[in-house]
Design goal:
The complex is a heterodimer of chains A (about 450) and B (about 80).
Chain A lengths: L2 E3 L9 E6 L2 E7 L3 H9 L2 H7 L6 E4 L9 E7 L13 H20 L2 E3 L7 E4 L2 E4 L5 E3 L8 H17 L7 H4 L6 H7 L8 H17 L14 H17 L21 H18 L3 E5 L7 H5 L4 E6 L2 H13 L5 E5 L25 E6 L3 H7 L4 H11 E8 L5 H7 L11 H9 L2 E8 L6 E7 L4
Parallel strand pairs in A: 10-11, 10-13, 11-12, 13-14
Antiparallel strand pairs in A: 1-2, 2-3, 3-5, 4-5, 6-9, 7-8, 14-16, 15-16
Chain B lengths: L1 H21 L10 H52 L1
The chains are: A alpha/beta (about 450), B mainly alpha (about 80).
Chain lengths: ~450, ~80
């Protein structure tokens, strides 16, 4: 039996996650007994689960207990892929924030309140944001919201920065694991945000108040109560603040890529789509990662077959458009995420173990790499041998497109630089990839010089 | 008396908030950012609670009026139908 305490869950004294032979369990400590019982008895658990806002769990035998403090052991439903807020687009983070507030409202109706409001506690499952930390609730005690600061740091501050300053500010959540410090957000936001009452209160005054009382502490216990009405007012005010934040993708690198592109006459696009479809039918993969997915056109060929698919792209606008499409179409099998393949998410946090790296969250059954290789090889100077090895680490099967030098897209990449890529040929591409993969199929895409390959990893991951 | 206390508290709150905006001193925010978050909530509690009460009242008023008019409409429609019979 392999037992592992999970390193992301050591902060909460109420309990922790562990795995036995790959199955995930959560120990609930005796310290949390009262709150856990209220959580069930008040009907809060049932309500949140039936509304699809909280992960479902079942109680299992206490024999799985890891320590003496165990009160209950539960087994939560497994989440297919853990993603992090710094990999989400604007609307994903916004919807995660609104979901957190919705949960808080329902909790208050049941006499409880969230004691954590971490963005890392939200995951996208079947297209919807849900809370995965069952131990986040405590009895409402007529005090201010303990998770108020965390909510502002994890959601309001990054969303305001993304909306008012620059969309790439979601990456600050990678630098600051407990959210964007409010004094930093306050300094970076434009002056006009001080005239928006919710942002003035929850970011600027909040930061100032933190500074003012940082070295003081509470001298005597404050007995003044924080009424339910004030609490609901606070949640309502945060809700309004989040809803008012907007971001529209425009003038993006890729968002209108398919529209005015000569290499992509509809016929070749259709042929490529048919080939992808055909290859997927041969493989029948359990899951798919579409790398460089743009707005998810080819990802949907997989996800519409009911295959769990993740669309990775470097462009926040493409991911935003892709996510909004999943919401519109109520898609359950597609998760769009923001990843720069040349610098993917690292492992971060305490001992570099709290959040997993991109590669550690693999491998996937099948990877799609369509119109991607020329970007990595030519724009980023990555040798084909390196690329072949990279793909051999992340997938068992690979559907990959080779775009030759004559292609207008490659010519465009070469137009402003010296051609130092003598080895960028179809022959070399096949030679390097055959070191790691067996080529099962290779088909030329109509009306182009491009080739689509179906490859199988020589060593099973 | 209690009312007076509340009024005092509101005045102090507003003055403190103004103080924050005008004088922001150098930070020890990383020492303990929790206290400031706690106190800010207490300072704005009254305003938030008031805002919530107004919103709730407004919503109730709107739904009361819409109900009233739609009820009148329903009655009118029913009368019409009955008349037809």
């Amino acid at each position: 039996m392999v037992r592992n305490k999970l390193s992301a869950s050591f902060r909460d004294p109420s309990g922790f996650l562990f795995s036995i032979d790959g199955a995930l369990y959560r120990q609930i400590n005796k310290k949390y007994q009262e709150d856990y019982d209220l959580f069930l008895k008040s009907g809060l658990y049932e309500k949140l689960v039936s509304d699809g806002l909280l992960i479902r769990h079942e109680e299992v035998d206490l024999k799985y207990a890891q320590t003496q403090e165990a009160y209950k052991i539960i087994r939560p439903e497994k989440i297919p892929f853990i993603s992090y807020p710094y990999e989400w687009c604007f609307s994903q983070l916004k919807n995660a924030a609104l979901t957190t507030l919705k949960i808080q409202r329902i909790a208050l109706e049941h006499g409880m309140s969230l004691k954590d409001a971490s963005a890392f506690n939200i995951q996208f499952v079947q297209g919807k944001p849900i809370l995965i930390d069952t131990l986040s609730f405590a009895k409402f005690d007529e005090r201010p919201w303990v998770a108020y600061r965390q909510f502002c740091q994890h959601f309001l501050a990054p969303l305001s920065l993304m909306s008012y300053v620059d969309i790439s500010f979601n990456k600050l959540l990678q630098l600051y694991i407990d959210g964007v410090p409010l004094d930093l957000a306050s300094r970076l936001l434009p002056i006009r945000t001080r005239f928006k009452p919710p942002l003035l209160m929850h970011i600027h005054l909040h930061a100032a108040s933190q500074k003012r009382y940082a070295d003081k502490g509470l001298k005597k216990e404050i007995t003044r109560k924080f009424s339910m009405r004030s609490f609901l007012g606070l949640v309502g005010s945060l809700d309004g603040a989040i809803k008012n934040l907007k971001w529209q993708p425009k003038g993006t690198e890729w968002a209108d890529y398919y529209a005015g592109n000569l290499n992509y006459l509809p016929a070749s696009l259709r042929h490529k789509a048919n080939l992808v479809d055909e290859f997927l039918e041969i493989l029948k993969p359990k899951n798919v990662w579409d790398l460089g997915a743009n707005t998810g056109f080819f990802s949907r060929i997989a996800s519409d077959k009911g295959i769990k698919t993740i669309s990775f792209d470097i462009d926040p606008a493409a991911v935003e458009i892709n996510y909004k499409t999943t919401v519109e179409r109520k898609e359950r099998n597609l998760l769009p995420l923001l990843i720069d393949l040349t610098n993917p998410s690292p492992a971060i946090g305490w001992e570099n173990k709290e959040r997993n790296s991109f590669l550690n969250r693999g491998p996937t059954d099948t990877a799609l790499a369509l119109a991607l290789v020329h970007h990595l090889a030519i724009s980023n100077n990555l040798p084909l041998a390196e690329l072949a090895e990279f793909f051999s680490h992340i997938c068992n099967h690979l559907i990959i497109e080779f775009v030759p030098k004559e292609d207008s897209q490659v010519q465009r990449l070469l137009s402003s630089r010296e051609d130092i890529f003598a080895s960028y040929t179809k022959e070399n591409f096949e030679k390097e990839f055959k070191n790691f993969f067996t080529v099962k199929k290779a088909s030329e895409i109509k009306n182009s010089k491009r080739v689509l390959y179906l490859m199988v990893n020589k060593r099973r991951l | 008396m209690k009312f007076l206390q509340n009024k005092d508290f509101a005045a102090v709150s507003i003055l403190t908030l103004i103080f924050f905006v005008v004088f922001t001193k150098e930070a020890y925010a990383y020492l303990d950012p929790g206290t400031g978050s706690y106190i800010l909530q207490l300072l704005v509690a009254g305003a938030l609670g008031g805002l919530f009460a107004i919103k709730t009242f407004w919503r109730q008023l709107v739904s009361f009026l819409t109900n009233l008019f739609s009820k009148k409409k329903r009655v009118r429609i029913r009368k019409k139908k009955n008349g037809q019979k």
